[in-house]
């Protein structure tokens, strides 16, 4: 009987410690966001000229917002940069769109690369490789197709690129949009993702997401160049890991990355979250054990039970207070990331937040049960450690 009692108390203490740690992360991330995000960009003349930037844009297909998203890169307020557009296939409709923008802004140094170069299984790396080899500036900005830039965003990122810094990355966020899928997306990236991203950055943990990432080229060459990461799907994580291991530092920019996809759906976002979860599990297997404890409902349930066992607290009131305070904390986090009141109502936030929190354990369970990763038209299998192998399409008879 005594071993069983000790086991129960051991689990209860574990849940209480996890609960306390998560609330410390809440406080830390929210405080850090107030200091870190949306700082005023310094527009005074620099002591030394800013380094030139080669902006690599891997493209596949088009969506309703792609033209306006790409146009923001032609109007950046930065003295020296070039745009390098990367397309796999000459018949891709993105080719015509890029050509029209290049004609509209002939004063901007822009080039189009078609065909890619196979250096691994990662299609994004393969797509960008010719542009990487042709880039003429010491700083590289890897920017996904769905990113929309403010005119001073690149300047903000470069100002964070100190002498000992090799990577400046933007925290993922989203533009305002209509519909429940857009609310769900904004709530996820403005609360759960923002909290863990800012908390990890504050603690010095690798949280690099490469959707908008400024990289010092000499540091990337030290670890083998872009091609060295073609065997990974999560090339951003391993790139940052390799660069930091050489003594370089990473910084998060003041302005979040504004994702602005023109095609939003709940299913598409959940498929994306499942893919990210599968990548995390393959890279860091302990994710499967610890990640549920970072979610409001599983952690709240465990902590409520533990509080009852250890302190005689009523589990249901404890759980309800936990959820309410978590909800209010997330509303404050979203306001901080948004830099003001979000464009969604409190009712929309409540619905989106409830949906996001209820779906989080389901998304993680689905990632665990089906480790195969689908990315556009391709499928992959991951080894422990993160190396990827492309799966051949199954023949249909």
TrEMBL record:
EC number(s) recorded for this UniProt protein: 2.4.1.80
Keyword Signal: no
Record localization: Golgi apparatus membrane
GO annotation, biological process: glucosylceramide biosynthetic process
Transmembrane segments: 6-30
Alphabetical UniProt keywords: Glycosyltransferase, Golgi apparatus, Lipid biosynthesis, Lipid metabolism, Membrane, Transferase, Transmembrane, Transmembrane helix
Pathway: Sphingolipid metabolism; Lipid metabolism; sphingolipid metabolism
GO cellular component, one term: Golgi membrane
GO terms assigned for molecular function: ceramide glucosyltransferase activity
Membrane-topology descriptor: Multi-pass membrane protein
Domain of life of the source: Eukaryota
Pfam families: Glyco_transf_21
Record field: catalytic activity: N-(9Z-octadecenoyl)-sphing-4-enine + UDP-alpha-D-xylose = beta-D-xylosyl-(1<->1')-N-(9Z-octadecenoyl)-sphing-4-enine + UDP + H(+); UDP-alpha-D-xylose + an N-acylsphing-4-enine = a beta-D-xylosyl-(1<->1')-N-acylsphing-4-enine + UDP + H(+)
Family, as annotated: Belongs to the glycosyltransferase 2 family.
Name the UniProt record assigns to this protein: ceramide glucosyltransferase
Organism: Euphydryas editha
Taxonomic lineage from the root: Eukaryota, Metazoa, Ecdysozoa, Arthropoda, Hexapoda
């Amino acid at each position: 009987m005594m071993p069983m009692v000790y086991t129960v108390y051991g689990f209860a203490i574990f849940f209480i410690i996890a609960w306390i740690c998560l609330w410390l992360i809440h406080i830390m991330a929210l405080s850090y966001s107030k200091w870190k995000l949306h700082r005023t960009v310094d527009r005074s003349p620099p002591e030394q000229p800013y380094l030139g930037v080669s902006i690599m844009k891997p493209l596949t297909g088009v969506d309703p917002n792609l033209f306006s998203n790409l146009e923001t890169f032609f109007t950046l307020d930065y003295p020296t940069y070039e745009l390098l557009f990367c397309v796999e296939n000459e018949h891709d409709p993105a080719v015509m769109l890029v050509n029209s923008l290049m004609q509209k802004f002939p004063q901007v140094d822009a080039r189009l690369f078609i065909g890619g170069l196979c250096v691994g299984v990662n299609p994004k790396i393969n797509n960008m490789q010719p542009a990487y080899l042709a880039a003429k500036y010491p700083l590289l900005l890897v920017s996904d197709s769905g990113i929309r830039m403010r005119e001073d965003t690149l300047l903000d990122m470069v100002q964070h690129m100190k002498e000992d810094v090799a990577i400046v990355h933007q925290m993922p966020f989203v533009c305002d949009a209509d519909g429940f899928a857009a609310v769900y997306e904004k709530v996820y990236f403005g609360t759960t993702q923002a909290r863990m991203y800012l908390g990890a950055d504050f603690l010095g943990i690798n949280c690099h997401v490469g959707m908008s990432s400024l990289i010092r080229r000499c540091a990337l060459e030290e670890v083998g160049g872009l091609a060295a990461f073609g065997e990974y799907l999560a090339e951003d994580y391993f790139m940052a890991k390799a660069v930091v291991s050489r003594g370089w530092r990473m910084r998060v920019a003041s302005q979040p990355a504004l994702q602005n996809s023109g095609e939003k759906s709940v299913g598409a976002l959940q498929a994306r979250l499942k893919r990210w979860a599968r990548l995390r599990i393959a890279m860091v297997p302990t994710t499967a054990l610890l990640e549920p404890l970072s979610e409001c409902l599983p952690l709240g349930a465990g902590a409520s039970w533990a509080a009852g066992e250890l302190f005689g607290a009523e589990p249901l009131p404890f759980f309800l207070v936990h959820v309410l305070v978590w909800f209010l904390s997330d509303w404050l986090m979203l306001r901080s990331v948004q830099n003001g009141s979000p464009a969604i109502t409190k009712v929309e936030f409540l619905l989106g937040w409830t949906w996001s929190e209820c779906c989080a354990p389901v998304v993680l369970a689905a990632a665990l049960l089906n480790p195969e990763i689908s990315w556009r038209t391709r499928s992959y299998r991951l080894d422990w450690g993160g190396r990827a192998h492309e799966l051949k399409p199954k023949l249909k008879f």
